[in-house]
């Protein structure tokens, strides 16, 4: 009868350790893939009305996450150059985008923001859900409005749209050193959340988005 001595037990343990480590690594990788897949699944599709083909302004989006909040913005991206005559550079702020009038902050559909959890946008407390934003630009500070209806065409912005506003805040535009041809939204990291940055022509605005 063979005895299972401490020496043979130790030898068996040495043989098992690499297998256990590999199994743990595979499980960790699987968990990470599952988490990434779930996070991607959380991102909603951008609302589109009609056909994207033939549009002069492309449909774009940007997203970020912090804490338990995932934020996604969907927007039409108009060009500074005239789409019908690319050699012509259009004046944007105060001209194509008039001052003291509501602007959809993009093109085509309303510019939309999706939140996976409650957060504040520009200091306005919002529940998880989908919203649209539009602005009233001026030569000074802008007013940005948050609206509870996101699935709509961006214009006109009349009483039937403003009736669904849930809050507003002001932002101070900044000046860019170089002009941006195609309107763009990006996210930058910030304490407690992120800033949503819009840039077009030589104008930029930053919208703070914070958890809670």
What does this structure look like?
The protein is an alpha+beta fold and 212 residues long. The protein has one domain (58-211). It is 19% helix and 44% strand. The protein is built from 2 helices and 12 strands, in the order αβββββββββαβββ. It has a 6-stranded antiparallel beta sheet, with no helix packed on it. Strands 7-6-12-11 form a 4-stranded antiparallel beta sheet, with no helix packed on it. A two-stranded antiparallel sheet has the order 3-4. A hairpin with a 2-residue loop joins strand 3 and strand 4. The longest helix has 37 residues, at 6-42. 24% of the residues are buried.
SSE order and pairing:
Blueprint: H1 6-42, E1 58-66, E2 69-77, E3 81-82, E4 85-89, E5 111-115, E6 119-121, E7 124-126, E8 129-136, E9 142-147, H2 159-162, E10 165-171, E11 174-190, E12 193-211
Antiparallel strand pairs: 1-2, 2-5, 3-4, 5-8, 6-7, 6-12, 8-9, 9-10, 11-12
Short description:
It is built from two helices and twelve strands. The protein has 212 residues and is of the alpha+beta class. It has one domain.
Instruction: Note the overall shape.
Output: globular
Number of strand elements: 12
Q: Structural class of the helices, strands and pairings? A: alpha+beta
Order of helices and strands: HEEEEEEEEEHEEE
Radius of gyration: 25 Å
Main sheet properties: 6 strands, antiparallel
Low-pLDDT stretches are: 9-17
| Portion in strands | 35-45%
Distance between the termini: 68 Å
Helix content: 10-25%
Mean pLDDT: 88
**In what order do the strands lie side by side in the largest sheet?**
1-2-5-8-9-10
Query: How many individual helices?
Result: 2
Task: Quickly count the domains.
Answer: 1
